[in-house]
Amino acid sequence: MFWWHRGCTLVGRSYYDKKENGMTIFRWPSGWDPFLGLRQVQRELERLFGDSVGAASRQVGGGSYPPVNVLNGPEELIVQCELAGCHLEDIDLSITGETLVVKGVKKPPEDDSELHYQRRERGVGEFSRTIVLPDRVDADRADARLEAGVLTVRLPKSEAAKPKRIQVK
Fold it and tell me: Which CA distances in Å does 13 have to 5, 24, 26, 29, 98?
């Protein structure tokens, strides 16, 4: 374990810079990674116990899954979600006001008792992602397609959301 104190140096650089406005400024030295030790411990645990330690932290269901792109055009919004491994029957979409909710489940592959994971990075389980849309949309004219693991939802803007010209008199 390392204990750092005022004046410690790494490769001839002080960790602390001069005081600015009465405060000591702390700067990480270039190339130094404060989390290197933690990553090394995680890798060693994964080596000893398989990848079950790291896989638990990557299970589907976090707030950032599935990753999305939202494109805003003059007539419609397009939402693209990465859903590799999901089937149509496992995806549920709903729109309320300016909010799109994508829910679903990624099922694990069929279990083969003779095989065990050497590495497991692809998460499985239920997920839900709420996307706040920049404009109101016409949900009745929405179109959703799943192709090559990408869900594309086309959402025509409602008439109230489209820009209107106002003539100046």
Answer: 13, 15, 12, 7, 51
pTM given for the model: 0.58
The model's pLDDT over 24-70, given as tens digits with 9 standing for 90+, comes to 555 556 566 777 788 788 778 777 766 544 444 444 444 468 899 99
Q: What is the pLDDT of residue 78?
A: 97
Examine the pLDDT at 21 and tell me if it is beyond 70: no
Give the CA distances from residue 117 to residues 109, 121, 127, in Å, rounded to whole numbers and listed in that order: 12, 10, 22
Task: Map out the domains of the chain as residue ranges.
Answer: 9-56, 68-109+122-161
Fold of 68-109+122-161: Immunoglobulin-like (2.60.40)
Q: Which residues 6+ apart lie within 8 Å of 67 measured at CB? A: 81, 82
C-alpha–C-alpha distance, residues 13 and 1, integer Å: 20
- Give the integer Cα–Cα distance in Å for 126 and 66: 11
For residue 24, how many other CB atoms are within 10 A of its CB? 11
**Amino acid present at 9:** T
